[in-house]
Amino acid sequence: MYKFATASAMIALTATSALAQSATEISWWHGMGGRNGEVINEISQMFNDQTDTCNLTPVSRGTYEEALSSGIAAFRSGEHPNILQVFDAGAATIIAAQGATIAAEELILAAGEEFNREDFIPGVRGFYADSEGKFIGMPFNSSAPIMYYNTEAFEAAGVEPPKTWEEFEEIAPAIVEAGYLPLTASQLTWMMVENFKSRNNQEFATNNNGYDGVDGTEILVNDENTVMMFEKLKEWADAGYFGFYGAGWADNLKPFEEGQSAMWIGSSGSFGGLQKSASAPFSADFMPYWGSIEGAGTQSFIGGAALFAMAGKPSEENECTAQFFTFLTSPEVQVYWHKNTGYVPITEAAYEMAKSEGYYEEQPVAEVGIKQLQLPAGEWTAGYRMGFYPQIRSVMEREFNRIFSNEVSVQDAFDIIQQESNDLLQRFARTAG
Amino acid sequence: MTDTPIADMPDAPRRSLSARLSDWYFAETPNPAKRVQFSRPLTPWIFLLPQLAIVVIFFYWPSVQAVTSSFYIEDPFGFGSTFVGFENYTDAVTNSQYASTAWFTALFCVVVTALSLGLGLLLAVKADKVIRGAETYKTLLISVYAIAPPVAGLIGMMFFDMHMGPFTKLFAAFGYDLRVGIDYWDTAFALTVIAVWKQIPYNFIFFLSGLQSVPVSVREAALIDARSGWRRFKDIILPLLAPTAFFLLVINITYTMFDTFSIIDVIVKDKPANNPMTLVYKVYLDGFKGNDIGGSSAQSVILMIVVAALTVVQFRFLERRVHYG
């Protein structure tokens, strides 16, 4: 009897102490699958292993768009996660909803952790920050659009990879001669509109590219230069210099993977995948710009996504979120993420660490994206902020298809994009009412 | 009327289902006139409650919410909203893309319904005549039905892939550059082929069972009256199949309007660009990808009204021409 009592007392004791020690649960919804999703799980495990007080559970919610929609739906019913991953095009939606999130910077400082904007590489600082530079979202997986090229094709053609689009025009005939399709590009909205704007330092929207507020923000895309970029693309497509395979990412990547096209404009984050899928040896360089545009050759916008700390959570959970953000930006974790996914490291310290480890001597392609993000900044290269931007991208995709199937002239297409996008932006401004 | 020989058959005047059910139910009752009554008025409501709850929670409540939010322009997170009256509706219907999507949806409904009903019927009639290996034919024809729409879409996507799809290569052999995903009508063609292929087995099953329930005696009697196989089919079989066909018509229109969603999603790889889509897909795009709740709600309310109107038309006008025997 005595033994039994002791035993049960022991059990009770262990149970209570386990309860007292039980970690604060926090959740993270993201939109990544495949290898990237696995790396997210690994990083979460690493975080849980080094803390006793917090337990982070990552949950994949499908694609970027699906993650954002389910995050929104969950927020409306009060079931939202602590951390939500939101992609570049959805940034305006979540940042405009003040009260849905706690600014990452404030969250980290409130938890007594250190935070320094200057720790981050310059190209990353602006995109998810407010107009004063305060970090609203925590930059996470960041990528840049870069130009991959098939080294065999360039050897066969006897030419050098182009730095500018003018050089591209000069060498394209030689590449055709050598039996290759010179150029393909995935997601023209990201490459040829958004990052045409950044690489060539062009104003993208009024109100300081949209950062100064939603009221009266207007997109600027039917200007001379943007139209010229697409008139050239159309001209190149007709001349056999450029292959357009619709709006799908993979359809435009395939000719490069199969060694048919000599250049592909893709994401720096595609590097990991391409190493497995490309049939020809390849290298990479910065995405070309126009030599004829004054002040061009600036850094590109960061693509990818950021993490947002959702509001309405108890303070001990917020502290865990802050700890995780600090953990995530530590050089070791950044380098691990960088090497395993191909996304760029977001802090100077992480970049230095990868350099000192000799990673870029082994894999020079892995450095192209981060180098491009560190090119000189211009007046318009910090980022853009436009509401309903996913729909604006859809409008562009629709018109691009029409351009390349000869249904509409480039100028008319961009007039339509300008008009419909501004209608959407006006609509978005009214959602805040 | 060709009805006359049928009426003379001993088992021809088939009674309605409810009448037969009540015969069966009251067969043992000493007093057939007495109806079963619940002794307490509340009891039937308790039995009804689960079903009512499901209908209210999953149908009426969301519908009411959709109608409400269709009058607002709303911040997706639910912080701010502006009452705009019917503006979401006028914006939706005046949008150039909405009009073209509506036209495509109508056309798609007509073409897919006609083709899948027609081909389903043709295959059922032919399979009904097969004697040797009939089971194999039927199983092969029906098996496609077991494929889920997204999988059907994936299979279709492989066939129509612009780089290596066998259909793309087949068309190329005839000198046509099939560009599914870029060219509007090429994509429409691919969508139609996949949607019809997916729906034929369903129609086939129902038509086949409809055909098999036509009494042999009726067929034999008809054989005496008409030598032409087509006339026998047109005058005897088809009217007897009419209830099945009517049911299938409703189902097929619903299928084309709503269930082709996943096929479209797979084919356009969730970037519709200039490719054709249905109204339902547009509701999804604007609401779930674009987070424009007001605009998307207005579109879904319009869709509800269209479907309600369509159902009324079908039952009021078409059903009158259908004989249930």
CATH architecture field of the largest domain in chain A? 3-Layer(aba) Sandwich
Compute the CA-based radius of gyration of chain A.
24 Å
The largest beta-sheet of chain B arranges its strands as: 1-2
Q: What percentage of the residues of chain A does DSSP assign to strands (E)?
A: 5-15%
Stated plainly, the CATH topology of the largest domain in chain A is called D-Maltodextrin-Binding Protein, domain 2
Low confidence ranges of chain A: 13-20
Poorly predicted sequence stretches spanning 5 or more consecutive residues of chain B: 1-12
Assign the CATH superfamily of chain B: MetI-like
Approximate shape of chain A: globular
Write structural notes for this entry:
- Chain A has 433 residues and is an alpha/beta fold.
- Chain A has helices at residues 2-21, 34-49, 64-76, 91-96, 104-110, 122-125, 151-157, 165-177, 188-199, 206-209, 224-239, 249-257, 271-277, 315-329, 331-341, 348-356, 359-362, 365-373, 389-404, 410-431, and strands spanning 24-30, 54-60, 83-87, 101-102, 138-143, 145-150, 181-185, 242-243, 261-267, 282-286, 303-310.
- In chain A, strands 1, 2, 3, 4, 5 and 11 form a six-stranded mixed beta sheet that branches. In chain A, strands 8-7-9-6-10 form a five-stranded mixed beta sheet.
- In chain A, helix 2 (34-49) links the parallel strand 1 and strand 2.
- The termini of chain A are far apart.
- With 325 residues, chain B is an all-alpha fold.
- A two-stranded antiparallel ribbon of chain B has the order 1-2.
- The longest helix of chain B has 34 residues, at 96-129.
- The A-B interface holds A 63, 65-66, 68-69, 72, 75-76, 90, 93-94, 96-100, 244-251, 254-255, 258, 388, 390-391, 394, 397-402, 404-405, 407, 427, 430-433 and B 73-82, 84, 91, 97, 162-163, 179, 181-184, 268-275, 285-286, 288-292, 294-295.
